[in-house]
Structure formats: C-alpha cells, structure tokens
Amino acid sequence: MSKRVLIAQIMHETNTFSRLLTAEDAYRRRYLVHGDELPEKFRGTRTEIGGFLDAADRFGWTLVNAIAANATPSGKVTAECWQMLKAGVLDVLDKEGPVDGICLALHGAMVSETDDDAEGALLAAIRRKIGRKVPIAITLDLHANVSDEMAEHADAIIAYRTYPHIDLYERAVQAAGLVNEVMEGRKELACSVARPPSLDGCDHGRTSAGVGPMVDLLAKAAEYEKETGIYAISVHAGFQWSDIVPAGPSVAITYSPSVGSRAQTILEDLVSDIWETREEQTVHYVPLDEAVAEARKGQDGTGKPLVIADATDNPGGGGYGDTTNLLRALLDAGITNACFCPITDPASIEIGQKAGVGATISVELGGKVDPVFGAPISCTGVVKSLTDGKFVHDGPMWKGLAMSMGPTMVLDVNGIDIVVTTNRQQTTDHQAFLTNGIDPKTKDVIVVKSSHHFRAAFEPISRKVIVADSGSLCSHNWSAFDFKKLRRPIWPLDEVTLS
Ligand SMILES: [Zn+2]
C-alpha cells in the first residue's frame, strides 16, 4: 500500500543581533505556501521540496503537502509568526494524519521570540503527536546551529554539503531515501550530534575553493559513510550571529543503532578536526580602501568585471541590505560603469515611482535601519528602470525558483547603477541585475551584498573577486557582539583548555 508522507519546509536563519523582528509579511515577501501550492511552486526546481516531490514519485508515496515557508535572514521570528508556521505542520497532522513518515526541510538556525531552538521545539511537538516510530528526516543548511533536541527527535539529519549551497535537491532526495528505507522495514535509524567548544570554525563552511578545512572534513566524513551502518554524516559550520547555547560548528551522524559506539568515535574524531583547524580560513576580508583601490585600477584587458562582495551587509546573514559605507566609498572615488545590488530602501523607490523612468531625482539613499553602519547618502541620479522585482533564478543556486525583490528601481548615480529594492535580499543570481535591465557582464565593477553565495553565479564571469568589510552587522569580529546565552567558555571569546 502506498505510504503517506508529510513534507514541509520552514526556514529561517535568525540573526539575534538584528533589530528587525521577522513577522509573517517577511515570509510572504519570499514565499509562504500551503497544500497543493507546494507542487505548483516547486516541481522541477533544484530545491528541497523539488527533491521531496521527485522522491515521492519514485517511491510511490501519497504526499501530505503541509507548508513551505522561507524568509530572508533577519531578527527573531515573532511569537505570532512562529505559531502560524508551526500550525502549518501540526494542524495538518491533526487534520490529515496519521502519516507513515515525515520529510522536513529546515534551516537549523531559527530562533523565535519564544524558542531559542525553534527547530528542536517543532520536532518535539511533532513527536508528541506521532510518537517515536514514524521516521522523521530533516535537511538542514550547512550553517545550522544543531541542538541536542534536534538530534533527539529527528531520525536523520542531512545537511547541505556545498557552500554556495547548490545541493539542496540532492540532500532532500537523500533524506527521503532514508525515510523510505525505514518505512519499508529495511533500516533503523539513530541520530547524534556533537560540537567543539568553539563559536567559529570549518572555514565558515566554504567548499567552492576546493581546499580548506571544510573540504577536508567532508572528504573524511564521506570515507566514514562507506562503513556498514553509517548512513549520513553532516558537518555544520554553524551560524555565529545567534546568541543561543549551541551556536557554532557541529557534526551530526545518522547510523544504525547496532553501530552506536562506532558512531560516537567518528563524531569525536570529526569534532576534534574542527577544533584543530578552527583558525584556518580561505577567505580574507579586505578594508574598503583596498577594495576601492582595486576598482580604481580599471580593466585589465580581460574585459571581465571586478566583483566586490559587500560581505558584512549580507542580507543572507541578517544584514540590513541598506548600509552605505562601501557605496559611498565607490561614489567618492568616482568609479563608473559599475552596478551595485541591493540598497534596500522602499522610501526612495516611492520617490522614483512618482517621478518615472528617465527622471532625475534626489534621495537620501539607504542607511535607514541602523545609521551606525553608515548614514543615508544624499545623492542625485537618473531613474533607469522601475520593475516589480520578480524573477526566476538562473542558478546554479535555487535554479528555477521564482522570488521577488519587491518593487525595484535602478538609480544611476554618476555611473553606478544602483539596484534599489523593497525586499531585503542577498544577491546570488544574474537575474537580480538582468531583470532590471542591467547586463552585469558589461560592467567594469559589480558589487553584490553577499558573503559567499554570489560566487556560484558571479565568480565565473569575473576577472577577480574581492570580499570587502564595510563594518556592518555581519562582521566576523565576534568580540563586538554582546553574547549572553552562548555556552561558555568558548573559543575565540574565552581561553579554552580541552581536558
Ligand atoms: Zn547557509
């Protein structure tokens, strides 16, 4: 008989230091869909739900489509929004249960006003409804802060293995495969997690350079996965901008209960590797004057653009997407034939909409959420385009997925095409420019607010990539953050001696 499997996605990477709470409207700006809307939106996409749908077809499951919700990283999820998201799974279980299995796509670094460990609380609530025997597999972001509760209530934890994250689909198929094995009676699963006394490590999870601690950790994990009864090993770099007890790198292992002690030995070995390599980094942030000097050099004869990441204002890590220090430095330096995405500033867009395309307008641009990261820029420019900001990702990341920047304006200020958006969104895709009439390949300088995901689409077209530190919210200067709940002692904030 066909197995009934519930699938759902509830995602948020919560920067607890952000002053912007995350409410339902933030989900509506990215996506918030229920029931039959899941296959409509995700079939054919390289996403987790896309993977669950294909796996369900292959295994002949009857799907219970619950909810798919994602919002740009920002501050804590409001209590009301969190209730709504949880109900998207729990109420469906009440109405459409029982089910034989559950596949959940979670982030693993979600914090609500009421739950520091939102995913752990969700999984515990699901367990209370379905009991211990129904298998639950979860996919997680590689930047998850995995709690003991998550490992207690999930049967399988499968995290992305790429950063930029381009294996969402594959990990979902893997998770669904394990759920199927349990439902068919071929496997039993146990799950454990362990973490070093470290806030930072795993080179922030970077895999794209093909070298570095994360690459080595994943290779070692893959070797261990060849052993009998070791079904999946997930290495998480953690999400550091989160003041919760388990923040930081961890390893989760999914295994047969028959090889429990071996699984613990493997965990200890990988955690020890994270600790030993905690100071190794493959990317170095450069100060703004260095980034501007590189832009000043101009073309090097390749005809390709220089790509600068405004990495510490990455909306993909909870940055406000409106900080101005880097943009101001480029304008002051007289850089031209450049494009910059985004400055999130609905008020300036409204002025542009009233004036229309082709008009010259004066605005106080950006710097509105927290001017400590750069005051608004008083500037005059030409409105080059006004769009609804909707686009479908070219990929490789999120290939095929439709998202929206909200009403969007391109403002040309002295030769820099600034993409001014309504929604806070990391720039990872060429369509962020193309859909607004800018061909990034024709520019001398491209600036994206992103710390690393931009590399998947933009590194191949660049002559050089620079990661700049504009001193914004996603700084790696951990001692600048007022951690209160984080477990202590922890490196690099404290002296840590291992026993
Ligand atoms: Zn991530």
Provide key terms for this protein:
binds zinc ion, 499 residues, single chain, 2 domains
Q: What characterizes the major β-sheet?
A: 9 strands, mixed
User: How large, in whole angstroms, is the Cα Rg?
Assistant: 23 Å
Oligomer: single chain
Overall morphology: globular
Structure annotation, total helices: 14
> For the record, what is the CATH homologous superfamily label of the largest domain?
Response regulator
Write the CATH architecture name of the largest domain.
3-Layer(aba) Sandwich
Estimate the mean pLDDT confidence: 97
- Give the cofactors and ligands: zinc ion
- State the low-pLDDT regions, or none: none
Distance between the termini: 53 Å
Q: In percent terms, what proportion of residues is strand?
A: 15-25%
Strand order of the largest sheet: 10-20-11-19-12-18-17-14-13
Predict the CATH topology of the largest domain: Rossmann fold
Helical residues, percent: 25-40%
Strands, total number: 20
List the domain count as a whole number.
2
Structural class: alpha/beta
* Top-tier CATH class of the largest domain: Alpha Beta
What does this structure look like?
The chain has 499 residues and is of the alpha/beta class. It folds into 2 domains: 273 residues, Response regulator (Rossmann fold), CATH 3.40.50; 190 residues, no CATH class. The chain is 28% helix and 23% strand. The protein has a 9-stranded mixed beta sheet. Strands 2-3-1-4-5-6 form a 6-stranded mixed beta sheet, sandwiched between helices. Strand 5, helix 6 and strand 6 form a beta-alpha-beta unit. Helix 4 packs parallel to helix 5, helix 8 runs antiparallel to helix 9 and helix 10 runs parallel beside helix 11. It is globular and about 70 Å long. The mean pLDDT is 97. The structure holds zinc ion (ZN). The site of zinc ion has 4 residues, from loops.
